Amino acid sequence: MNGQQRSSISKGLEVDIVLKADQRTGKLTRGIVKDILTNSSFHPRGIKVRLEDGRIGRVQQIIT
Q: Which PANTHER family does the protein's record reference (predicted)?
C-alpha cells in the first residue's frame, strides 16, 4: 500500500518514510507513526507523519 491516502494511515502503524534530507536519494526510514501532520485526505508525494522517535517525513509505504 502507498501512503498517499490519509485514511489508510493511523497511529501505531509501521511505515517507510522519506525524510526531507533524503528526498533527492529516496532513502527510506522505517518507524511507527506517532502523529499525522497532513490535514488533507490525499497528497501526491505522501502523507506527512511524525514517527515515535521524532523524525518527520512523507509516507512512501505502509508495512503490513
A: YWBE PROTEIN
CATH number at residue 24: 2.30.30
pLDDT in tens, 4-21: 999 999 999 999 999 999
> What is the reported pTM?
0.93
Pairing relationship of beta strands 48-51 and 56-62 according to DSSP bridges: antiparallel
Q: SS3 string of 7-49?
A: HHCCCCCEEEEEEHHHCCCCCEEEEEEEEECCCCCECCCCCEE
Contact 31, 53 (CB under 8 A): yes
Q: What angle do CA 50, 19, 59 make, to 5 degrees?
A: 60
- Domain with 27, as residue range(s), is 6-62
